[in-house]
Amino acid sequence: MSPTSSAALAGTHDVIDPRGPRFGAVVTSAVLAAALILGPGWGLPLLAVQLLAFAAGALLGVRYQPYGWLFRKLVRPRIGPPTEFEDARPPRFAQAVGLTFAAVGLVGLLAGADAVFYGAIGVALLAALLNALFDFCLGCELYLLGRRVLGAQADQSGPRP
User: Fold this and answer.
1) Contacts of 131 (CB under 8 A, 6+ apart)
2) Stated pTM of the model
3) Following DSSP, what letter does each residue of 80-129 receive, concatenated?
4) What is the DSSP letter of 157?
């Protein structure tokens, strides 16, 4: 997702510093990697922490996600204010996607299906690493694709002349 000027986004919806989600992806990658390395037993507390972080970002908004708070309080004061902003909706959707994978991993773990745990958390880790390393937010891209598809369907289902 490309950042835009604050003037273009002002008044339309919530905007965020685009550097925040990338910082959050770095922390998320570390937490998920540690959960995978520690495995189903010792990884459970880390998975629970990450699940709660995803839930805060998805349900309350990325501004209230704990890693976003850390970015605003500890990182942004050292690197300065953003020069541009981005729409908060795609990163919020990405948090919901992460929440889904974390929940599937947790259910798999609790059900004794270790393969489900490893698979779901592995996919979430891959998505977080794409964002952390390459600034490519897979969940954001899914959000934008969905908007295009649903927008095209809405256009086709409208009244016909």
Assistant:
1) 21, 22, 25, 94, 137, 138
2) 0.86
3) ---SSBEESHHHHHHHHHHHHHHHHHHHHHHTT-HHHHHHHHHHHHHHHH
4) T
Q: What is the pLDDT of residues 98-124, one digit of tens each?
A: 999 999 999 999 999 999 999 999 999
Output the average pLDDT for the chain.
90
* Both structure tokens of 30: 């570390």
Residue 107 tokens read as 């259910």
Mean pLDDT of 65-86: 95
Cβ neighbours of residue 142 closer than 8 Å, sequence gap 6 or more = 93, 94, 97
Q: Which two tokens stand for residue 159?
A: 């009244």
Q: Cα separation of 159 and 48, whole Å?
A: 48
3-state secondary structure of 11: coil
Q: Which residue in the block uniquely carries the two structure tokens 């934008």?
A: 144
